[in-house]
Amino acid sequence: MFTSDSEQNEQITDKANQLKEISKRIKNLEISPLYSFRVENNYLPVFGEGNINADIMFIGEAPGKQEAESGHPFVGRAGKLLDELLDSIGLSREEVYITNIVKDRPPRNRAPRISEINIYKPFLIEQIEVIKPQIIAPLGRIALRTILREFNLPFSESKISQLHGEKLKSTTSFGDVTIFPLYHPAAVFYNRSLHETLVRDFQILSLSIG
Questions:
Q1: CA 80, 85, 87, 92: dihedral to nearest 10 degrees?
Q2: 27: how many CB neighbours lie within 10 A of its CB?
Q3: Domains of the chain: which residue ranges?
Q4: Domain 5-206 falls in which CATH fold?
Q5: What's the pTM?
Q6: Side by side, which strands form the sheet with 97-100?
Q7: Phi and psi (nearest 5°) for 80?
Q8: pLDDT beyond 80 at 2
Q9: C-alpha dihedral sign at 145, 148, 151, 154
Q10: How far is CA 69 from CA 81, 105, 120, 162, in A?
Q11: Of the ranges 1-10, 11-20, 128-137, which one carries the lowest mean pLDDT score?
């Protein structure tokens, strides 16, 4: 079906407004156990950013200190590596969408708790519904488990080491989607051998675009 430029602009504006409204609710999410930690440390919620019509949506687990200070996702060492991996397949972060399951920084960079994931997950699902990506790429085990369970895939108890680089098919309200698990870029800093694995998986990912 042909869509005129004015209709496309209206759709983009509508998407932007929907995401802005979701972001506002997260900013005022006083029921979150991470809200007071954010306020006490003058941190910012990290909603996500990128192309709101992106084909690929990368999802991490939670922001770190640099992200919470800036309000932008993946701006530290892991973010730099993510940018390099994107560049290796001819993409920039402006062409994809990057976010986390949990939108506020947990103390001491600990992993988010199940209760925190459950509070923030509905906002993530709303983001997915608005952006409508063709590919959802969870980064790391926590993001992977959350996404697999949300999409009722039978691999929900599988490890990232078993599923990375695999194309898992699912269906959403807006059509078919591919779940493409990836190691979190930060994992490379603890296991250098994973760098080659990530590079290889991004090459596989590039073949799934379009």
A1: -70
A2: 14
A3: 5-206
A4: Uracil-DNA Glycosylase, subunit E (3.40.470)
A5: 0.95
A6: 49-50, 97-100, 56-60, 135-138, 175-179, 168-172
A7: -65, -40
A8: no
A9: negative
A10: 19, 10, 19, 34
A11: 1-10
